[in-house]
Amino acid sequence: MPFRSLVLTALCITGLTGITATAYADTVTTIVVPYGPGGPLDTTARILAESVKDSLGNVIVENRPGAGGNIGLSQVARAKPDGTTLGIAAVATMAINPWLYASMPYDAANDFAAITPIASVPNVLVMNSERAKELGIANLQDLITYAKGHANQLNYGSGGNGSAGHLAGELFKQMGQLEAVHIPYNGANPAQLALLSKEVDFNFDNLAAAAANIRSGKLLALAVTTEAPSPMLPGVPSMAQTLPGFTIDTWWGLVAPANTPADTIAELNKAFTQALKSEQTQQRFDLLLAQPITSSAEDFGSFMDAERQRYESIVKAAGARID
Fold first, then answer.
1. Which residues form the signal peptide (predicted)?
2. Which residues 6+ apart lie within 8 Å of 3 measured at CB?
3. For a tag on the chain, would you pick the N or C end, based on fewer CB atoms within 10 A?
C-alpha cells in the first residue's frame, strides 16, 4: 500500500502482538531529536520512548538542534549501527535540506536505515479573515482567480527562505500559474503575526500553530496541504482537490544508522508500530493535531526516497539556498 494511503488508514488498524524486552534489558536506546525540546517532533519522540519501555527497555530522548536539523542527524549517521542510537528524520532533514544546503554533513540517501514513520501534520493555507472579506475571497479558487488578475499584488509570509511555508507558497505559484511576492520572516511566529496584522495576505502555516486563530475566526482556512482533507479540520478541502498533485505536509519518522542489521530494524519497527497503534498514543497525538502513521521499514524508506526526489524541483524553483 502506498505510504500516503497509510496516513488515511493508520488509525483504523489494530495493534500487534507483544515483544519481550529481554534482548534490550541491559541496553539504553537513545532517540536523537535534531530540534529543540517542546515541539511536536520532540513531544512525540518522548511519548514513544515511554510507550516502548516494556519491549525495548530504557529509551531516552536527546535533543541536538542546529543547522536545520543537520547536526542531530549527522550524529545518528556516525553512530554505531547496533540499534541503540536512533534519530527522528523529518521532511526537512531528509527531503528538503539536501537541496537547500550547499554542504551537508550526511548523505540522506545512503547514511540511514528507515525504521517506521511516526506522524503527519497538515499545513494549511490561511488568510486574515478581514483581508479575505475585503478582497471577496471565500475559498481557494477565489484566491487563485484574484491572484491571476492582480499579478504580484498579493504577498505571502513564511518562517524564512527554504521553510515549509516558503516552499508551499512557491509550489502554489507554480501549480496555480499565478504571481505573488514572498516575504520571509525570522521564524513561523513572526510570519503568523504579520498575517494577523495584515502585513501579508496569506500564509501556509502548520495546522497546530494556526488552529486557535482559525477557531476564533481571525484566520480563514482555505485548504489543507495534505493529499486528502484532514479529519483534524472538518469542512476544509485539500489543495489537491483544486490543484491535483499538490502535497506539502509535515511528516517525521524513525531512522537508524546505515548497516544496522535487518533483524534489529524489524524488531524496532514492530515495537514502535505497536506503540503507535495504541489507543493511548493516538489520544496523546490528537492533542498535538498529529496523526500517527505506520508502515513497514521498506515502505518508509521508499517514501523518503520519493520525497527527496520530489523536493529537488520544488527547492530549486524557489531559489532557496543556504551556504
1. 1-25
2. 117, 293, 295, 299, 300, 302, 303
3. C
